[in-house]
Amino acid sequence: MVYQISNELLTLAIDGTGGAMQHMVFDGQEYLWQGDPTYWREQAPHLFPILGRLTKGRCTMDGDPVTLDVHGFFRRRPMELAAREADRLTLVQTWDAETYAAYPRKWRVLLTYALEGSTVRITFRVENLDEKRLYFYYGGHPGFKLPLEAGLTFEDYCVQFPAGARLRQRPVTGAGFMTGEAPDYPLEHNQLRLRRNLFDCDAVILEGTGGEATLLAPGHRRQITVSYPQMRYLGIWQPAGTDAPFLCLEPWCALPDRQDQTTELSEKEDVSCLEPGAAYENTWSVTLR
């Protein structure tokens, strides 16, 4: 099932599987990557209850065994319609026996999209329905088509960060695990100029970004701003060694595992914790120009 909402400026289509955005049309133009298995078949998945990889695909949660694939199961599971207006939509996904076997907690997620002018506002709400504490990660993974204007190339674009941002890189290994290092990542004029070899070792993961990143070609009109005030990290990614016509700007609350590190989920850096009956909300946005 695909749902559509719109306002005077934007049209947004959302897939009922995982609640991923499928189309994001502004000023008559598609801004969202349309998916192609040659490069990456997905478009804008939500990542829950983990981000990235667990070492050997497993860990524990207060001693209970957890077994999860890359980025967790949420993006592959169906959602139901909870509420809908012309410019607003809420979908719901709830635990079941299959999710409980892999991730032994009872939970519910409400995913809301709201259109405000040329901005898509996304709220991810997690509710703990269990009698035990719930530990989880959350992140977005939207891909945006590049170039956005005829006559431009991938290398004409940059990612612009707010003035005063003090970036550090969180490097990853070739296998997609964190190295544990956090070197400074200085940029000229707070702009990361895009080039294909940036992604030879998987994603560029940054912290200290000021909670905002804008994808633009200097001197050109069309641009995309992702704002993520509750997220500590931003992943920037496209498939290594390709000419993929898109770029992902991924706001994350936490990081994947370090290489060969199998730990208790409750002890992981930046993990979110909900007491029984409690709820968590994270709102981030995409603004098109």
Automatic annotation (TrEMBL):
<dbReference type="Pfam" id="PF01263">
    <property type="entry name" value="Aldose_epim"/>
</dbReference>
<dbReference type="GO" id="GO:0016853">
    <property type="term" value="F:isomerase activity"/>
</dbReference>
<dbReference type="InterPro" id="IPR014718">
    <property type="entry name" value="GH-type_carb-bd"/>
</dbReference>
<protein>
    <submittedName>
        <fullName>Aldose 1-epimerase family protein</fullName>
    </submittedName>
</protein>
<dbReference type="InterPro" id="IPR011013">
    <property type="entry name" value="Gal_mutarotase_sf_dom"/>
</dbReference>
<dbReference type="InterPro" id="IPR037481">
    <property type="entry name" value="LacX"/>
</dbReference>
<dbReference type="GO" id="GO:0005975">
    <property type="term" value="P:carbohydrate metabolic process"/>
</dbReference>
<dbReference type="GO" id="GO:0030246">
    <property type="term" value="F:carbohydrate binding"/>
</dbReference>
<dbReference type="InterPro" id="IPR008183">
    <property type="entry name" value="Aldose_1/G6P_1-epimerase"/>
</dbReference>
